[in-house]
Amino acid sequence: MxxxxxxxxxxxxxxxxxxxxxxxxxWFPIRKSKSEYCxxxxxxxxxxxxxxxxxxxxxxxxxxxxxxxxxxVSEERISQTENYSEFMQLKLFxxxxxxxxxxxxxx
Length: 107
Description:
The chain is mainly α and 107 residues long. Helices cover 72% and strands 0% of the residues. The protein has 6 helices and no strands. It starts with a helix and ends in a 7-residue tail after the last helix.
């Protein structure tokens, strides 16, 4: 299973911290590149962090990190990566997870 599939599996299992770690394996070695791919990964990692903070009832911190996710994961940004299709599916998946738990942070 690749890191992105593992990330989705862990998000579905509400193992948000572990999901963060799964994508960090991809992001960490390239973190200084500032490529659209790197920044998109950073955004998805922030989504997992936001969900973890929400799970821990740290609503304000979760909201701040959610806004970072939104900053880094846009269709415009991910369209500039070789992973457009996979990242769009991941963005839709994450946005659905935020909606499913009706997070107070997104309003």
